[in-house]
Amino acid sequence: MALLLGLSLSLGAGSSIAVPSEGDARARLDAIGEQIQGATRNLANTDAARDEASQDLRKVETELADTHHQLDMIQNDRRQLTKEVDELEQRRQFMEDERSAQLQALKRQLDALYRLGTTPQLKLLLSESDPSRLDRLQTYLNHLSKARNERLDALAELDRQLVANQHELDKREQRLDALQEDLDKRSKVLADQTKERQAVVAKLDQRYDTEASRLEQLSQDRAHAERVLREVQEAVARLSEPPPSTAIERTRGDLPWPVQGMMMTRYHQTRGVHYNGILIQAAAGTKVEAVHAGRVVFADWMRGFGNLLIIDHGDQVMTLYAHLQQFSVDVGTRVEKGQAIGQVGDSGGRSAPGLYFEVRRAGQPINPQSWIAQR
């Protein structure tokens, strides 16, 4: 925490640069993001957070997020390779068709030459007395021979390209086989980690003898999160040059939903970690989108919220996205409205997937339903 304070004070002390560059702004926010997440880990070691099951949940859900991310990367690679293989196959079919057409044309040319005999030039000289006709026939013969040589050259080039094409296809197929093997291994790891998570969640649930005790724990988790969120807000506020405005205030009531789904809980409708925002039901793996342009200032696991991502939009406005399956962006990343920032999950010990969404101004939660568009 002292390190975070020192960073913030040093950023707030007399900067000689009136307008920071994009690189400077990103570097400062990157540094702050690292310190904020360090502070989060320090807070996680308090007595209230030292519960063994909670630590186990953090570990397994963090590993799950990494596995999901790696699986997505493998799947993306497979899709790209499959596309390349399809393009190579189409190219190969085109060249095969072209080769067949060239062979047919060459056959016709050879037939024409065959009809002229083995010594067509000599026959022309002996059979033709008209010099002009002889000249025309010689020109035709020269064209025929040239066309034949060009066909032969074209066939040789097509054969070379077909060999190269097959070589590329073989390499892509080998890479696809390797990716499939890696995918199978990662899928097994994912299945094992999912079982491990289920056991940890069951262990956590066993601690609560009543619903009231469970809600009390969730309220403690929210209080813990509030401490971290204050650190985030204060660190950004102490920047010598605040994050640039993205004019988010002008979008009030017109922001898109971060994910499409049914609203399960409303603002201040329930106790616990969801008190200050809304919970949206959506299938696991559904893409979560940034509701407005901004900069990622936090992306880490937090007790009660699971994988939590925070975007600063300038004008002291931040949006929070919790229970993510995985992150698609890192701290310091500049994001645009509608950009994918993560995927819906059930991290934080939830029994069902969903996205928790929250809006804050100057560190204080405000009703997100007044910001997002009505449906």
Question: How would you characterize the overall build of this protein?
Answer:
The structure is a single chain. With 375 residues, the chain is α+β, with helices and mostly antiparallel strands. The chain is 55% helix and 15% strand. It has helices spanning 2-12, 22-43, 52-116, 120-127, 131-205, 211-237; strands at residues 262-265, 278-281, 287-289, 294-302, 306-312, 317-327, 334-335, 340-344, 355-361, 364-366. Strands 1, 2, 3, 4, 5, 6, 7, 8, 9 and 10 form a 10-stranded antiparallel sheet that branches.
- Number of distinct beta strands: 10
Taking the sheet with the most strands, its summary is: 10 strands, antiparallel
Give the overall silhouette: elongated
Question: Mean pLDDT, nearest integer?
Answer: 76
Distance between the termini: 42 Å
Q: SSE order in H/E notation?
A: HHHHHHEEEEEEEEEE
CA radius of gyration is 34 Å
